[in-house]
Design goal:
Elements: E1 11-14, E2 25-31, H1 35-42, E3 43-44, E4 55-62, E5 69-78, E6 89-95, H2 99-110, E7 114-115, H3 120-127, H4 133-143, H5 148-158, H6 163-185, H7 195-213, H8 216-224, E8 226-232, H9 238-246, E9 264-270, E10 273-279, H10 289-304, E11 307-313, H11 320-329, E12 334-339, H12 346-355, E13 368-372, H13 381-394, H14 408-429, H15 434-452, H16 458-465
Parallel strand pairs: 1-7, 8-10, 8-11, 11-12, 12-13
Antiparallel strand pairs: 1-2, 2-6, 3-4, 4-5, 5-6, 9-10
Helix pairs in contact: 4-5, 6-7, 6-15, 7-14, 14-15
Binding site for K(+): 235, 254, 256, 259
Enzyme class: hydrolase
Binding site for Mg(2+): 239, 260
Length: 472
């Protein structure tokens, strides 16, 4: 059995981020049968404070042998089963920083606890029936949420909004299995099985699974975000676009071409979607060795991005250099940003628009659009964000209504359940014996059970909980 599943004994860990000289509070969490004994040996609560569940005590943490005071702190007591792990839990709320929490953790380890494994507090909550697997994954997603919508989706999972429909689908499959097995065991005492009704019920279950599977892409988008690369020739305003968009001065802006020598990154949120924006070096032929490295990194960033913003200089028009870059990125989801539009006369704007490619070829079927900006004047950013959301939606990934979204593990299990149900239907059409019907139906039931944890293997649990931090 792996270390992750050595869930006996009392565990302790620092439950807050440890940052030198920062943070006002640091928390050491202890869970298990010895949690109260450890607290009583380390914590001195002056006066007549009552040691009972769900109370906060004020006092001092002392070394049990030397009686030296380690920290002035608060102690939170949560007795089983009214705790996160459904075990006795105590939390020492210490002063922030490094030394206090490290010393308190060491005292806990020396007085009856061991260091928790990553995710072990949440694993115990799952094993003790406090959470199901979708709720546990919701906690991990909430901790790592990069936008309010991502947090909202994680909370939906934590509140059981995914577990409920999954359990209902599994219950429906179990009902069908019971009907079939009853005919196998008591065929002479029961009326014949209604094949059409069974097929119809399986169709309904499969349709609901399909609906849930359609949320996978938006779930991935919320969790990982959208990577956007700003590319183009030198001095077309890429850095100005990044600064205007991020409302900062992340990138250096000058009139000299080739100022940006490396990829500059900024984190934004557009329509609830986390966006990682990469301002790249201007792409051109150059003999400057440093700039050449920057150009190569720009090309790699464009190829790795989910969306490319090909930026051109409106005052220079559509140039041969723009055409060369376009040929290299047109197979990607693409927005052509016509920047410095304020420097172009109104009468010439229509001519410029006609010069910019708007063709649909075998290589350029990915979603595309064109917008105009004057980044130096902070103009056109709203139109850019609207165009990005339209690109996202064209890929059938909704930027709104992010209440429920499955992850890759859940999608894999749902896909297996759907395949198993399709096999059941094929078995029925082929008029095979009832015993054959039950084989794939059990497979669907098992796959659905893996999502919530009603049927789960050690390797699945290890994969899920190893992503957690040690104190969670």
């Amino acid at each position: 059995m792996s270390e992750l599943f050595a869930t006996t004994g009392t565990i302790a860990a620092i439950a807050t981020a440890v940052v030198p000289q920062q943070g006002s509070v640091g928390i050491v969490r202890v869970s298990g049968s010895q949690a109260m004994a450890i607290a009583q040996s380390l914590f001195h609560a002056p006066g007549r404070q009552v040691w009972e569940s769900h109370r906060i005590l004020y006092g001092y943490i002392r070394h049990p042998q030397t009686q030296q005071i380690v920290d002035e702190a608060l102690l939170l007591i949560m007795k089983a089963p009214r705790s996160y792990t459904r075990e006795d839990v105590v939390e020492f709320h210490c002063h922030g920083g490094i030394m206090a929490v490290q010393q308190v953790l060491q005292l806990c380890l020396e007085n009856g606890s061991r260091l928790a494994q990553p995710g072990e507090f949440t694993l115990r909550a799952f094993l003790n029936g406090r959470l199901d697997l979708t709720q546990a994954e919701g906690i991990a997603d909430l901790v790592g949420a990069k936008s309010p919508q991502a947090a909202q989706s994680a909370l939906a999972g934590l509140q059981g909004k995914l577990a409920h429909p999954i359990r209902q689908l599994r219950a429906n499959c179990l009902d069908i299995l019971a009907e079939i097995e009853a005919r196998i065991d008591f065929e002479e005492d029961l009326p014949p099985l209604d094949d059409k009704a069974i097929v119809s019920e399986i169709d309904k279950i499969a349709a609901e699974i399909t609906r849930l599977l359609e949320t996978k892409d938006k779930g991935e988008l919320l969790r990982t975000g959208l990577k956007v690369a700003i590319v183009g020739r030198p001095n077309v305003g890429k850095s100005s676009l990044l600064n205007a968009w991020s409302r900062s001065d992340r990138a250096i802006v000058t009139d000299l071409p080739g100022t940006t020598r490396d990829v500059v990154e900024s984190q934004l949120v557009v329509g609830g979607i986390p966006v990682q924006v990469l301002d790249t070096a201007g792409i051109r032929e150059t003999t400057d060795q440093v700039e050449k490295i920057g150009v190569e990194r720009s090309r790699r960033a464009a190829n790795a991005a989910d969306l490319v913003l090909l930026t051109i200089d409106a005052s220079a028009g559509w140039t041969e250099g723009d055409e060369e870059i376009y040929e290299k990125v047109q197979h990607r989801p693409l927005i052509i940003v016509i920047n410095k539009i304020d420097l172009l006369e109104e009468s010439k704007r229509t001519t410029l628009q006609s010069q910019i490619p708007n063709r649909s070829t075998e290589r350029s079927r990915s979603p595309k659009s064109k917008i105009v900006t004057a980044a130096a004047q902070n103009q056109g950013i709203d139109a850019l964000e609207t165009a990005i959301l339209e690109i996202v939606q064209s890929g059938k990934v909704q930027a709104a209504d992010m209440d429920l979204a499955i992850n890759q593990r859940q999608a894999a299990a749902l896909t297996q359940a759907k395949i198993s149900l399709e096999q059941v239907q094929a078995t029925i059409v082929q008029q095979l014996p009832l015993d054959f019907w039950t084989i794939d139906l059990r497979g669907a039931i098992q796959a659905l059970g893996e999502i919530t944890g009603e049927e789960v293997t050690e390797s699945v649990l290890e994969r899920i909980f190893s992503r957690f931090c040690i104190g969670k």
